[in-house]
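Final report, section 2: Outcomes. Of the targets proposed, FIST C-terminal domain-containing protein is the one most frequently requested by collaborating groups, and we therefore present its record in full.
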Amino acid sequence: MHNSEGVVSAMSQAVDAGQAAEELARQLLHPYLGFVLFFCSASYDLKALGDALQQCFGTVRVVGCTSAGEITPQGYGRNCVTAVGFNHAHFSIATELIDQVEHFSLIDAQHLVERLVGGCRSNTLAPIKGNTFALTLLDGLSSREEMVLAALSAALGDIPHFGGSAGDDNFLTHTHVYFNGAFHSGAAVVVLVNTWLDFEVFTTHHILPRAEKLVVTGADSPSRRVYELNAEPAAEEYARHIGVAVADLDHRTFAAHPLAVRIHDQYYVRAIQQVHADLSLSFYCAVENGIVLTVMKPGPILPNLESLFDGLHSRLGDLLLTLGCDCFLRRLELEDAGDLEQIGSFLQAKRVMGFNTYGEQFNGMHINQTFTGVAIARGRR
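The predicted structure is given below as tokens.
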């Protein structure tokens, strides 16, 4: 993409961290570069990559996170790093690190948002109200998303907010966010973006309800672990309802047979992370005793995405960039169906950049199995 448009996209498939950083810098650096956002495979030597990015980009602020797959200028990627550079004539961007998410409070959130707003205002690009959105990248294994998002949402007020939980290529061991030259765990990065360009924060999913209901009758909410569904061992009851053996429960089964909680007329997926030897289930989102989970089934992804982008185009005009947080369970579903290349080509045509996440965020809610993000228009000036 041309620099004058406001954003430049880049990617590197280099295995060596230093080479990957150099390739990104060659594609992104220009005199008006004000900010870089990247998403990378956890397979990199993260210490080496962090140092190399800081060296290659110098005083330009760079933030990012590890992923469970990348969305690149060429569609879906794997074991690579992808990035977007933002022109400071189009975007005023401020960033903050929450270095210990478990201790983050509403007071902390209010002070953090005040600093972010002050940082964006210093460039006098556009009024904050109506011209600003927030992006949050969270450690995807911290189990603190709901708490952090509730505080941030209250502090952000009317500012729309989206984000994603960092991944680690589906290993579920260590996820990281990147800030100020280093990768951090147990942390989050908050990015406030002020722009005179039109934009829209959105979320969508392709999951449809079935008739079956599962009531959480035994759960440890802080650890997001469910021991009983319908007063039966959780894994056995779930497996019985979806018609598989407990031994066959894995990521792909969870992606094909999600559970969701209904709020008003909307369903919000509560994705299962793993099954344990004691037949309990760990979830990516908050689960509590007494909630009713509906067994869901995936519908077709492409028509859902086509409808989303048709609507965005009709409201915003031609799109400059869409930053997308795409649940890794959706990607597993596409891989199983053999549709990854088709959907990747669609995202490429729509100028989507982003990553596969361990959870998505939309205006203070932590959700799963969605495609959530922000679409930014080319602008009519």
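The mean pLDDT is 94.
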